[in-house]
Design goal:
11 helices, 0% strand, mainly alpha, 226 residues
């Protein structure tokens, strides 16, 4: 429930949805877990990057899988970060969380020209992923905001479910009212009027039920009881 609350809050704050999260974690969840050491930040990172790039969850997961480990492993990417004065380990030799590394990298990039930023990003993330890496730096502040708000998201999923239930209940009430009205009308109607009014009510019912099903599918509510 806590995870659902956080993801529901992220959905409210950004253009991301639960499917984006699922796809991103399927493609790059191990790298995100390893680098962030914090589930809340992992989903905030995906949401912030999704907001900045409009890339799919799978694409963002692939970015995390291919680029994030390179930041911490010995090699050209790690060396490029060190040249910018960005440490990937703390004083005890432990790897620093991804969020801290990105914040420091953003500060370092703020002092570079645009062309220098591009060259540094290519050295760190590679020619194929440097644009997404730059987007991740631009999204640092937004990601922090999402993280702060989603961390205190208790009850969000339940609130959204209550809204859906209210909408479904309203649809049912409207349908019942229409049939009650139809029953009264039938008492004073001839055969031709009966078929005309019945068809109109049936169409209204079908449209209302269709909308209820759409709402239910969107938020994963079972329609069978209805």
């Amino acid at each position: 429930i806590e995870i659902l609350d956080k993801i529901s809050k992220v959905e409210d704050l950004t253009a991301s949805d639960a499917q984006d999260m699922a796809d991103a974690f399927t493609a790059g969840g191990n790298a995100l877990a390893f680098a962030t050491k914090d589930f809340d930040y992992a989903i905030s990172f995906i949401a912030g990057l999704r907001e900045q790039t409009r890339k799919t969850g799978k694409e963002l997961g692939t970015f995390a899988k291919t680029v994030v480990p390179r930041l911490f492993a010995k090699g050209d990417s790690n060396a490029a970060l060190q040249q910018l004065g960005v440490a990937t380990q703390d004083q005890t030799g432990e790897l620093r969380p991804l969020q801290d590394v990105l914040k420091d990298t953003k500060k370092a990039f703020d002092g570079l020209t645009e062309s220098e930023q591009v060259n540094a990003a290519k050295a760190i993330a590679g020619a194929r992923q440097f644009e997404t890496f730059l987007a991740a730096l631009r999204a640092v502040d937004k990601t922090t905001q999402i993280y702060t708000q989603s961390t205190n998201a208790g009850g969000t999923a339940a609130q959204k479910l209550a809204i859906v239930q209210q909408k479904l209940s309203y649809q049912v009430d409207q349908t019942v009212a229409e049939f009650q009205k139809l029953a009264v009308e039938l008492g004073n109607a001839g055969v031709l009027d009966f078929f005309k009014d019945a068809l109109k009510a049936a169409r209204g019912f079908a449209m209302g039920l269709e909308e209820a099903v759409k709402i239910a599918k969107t938020l994963g509510v079972a329609i069978a009881p209805l």
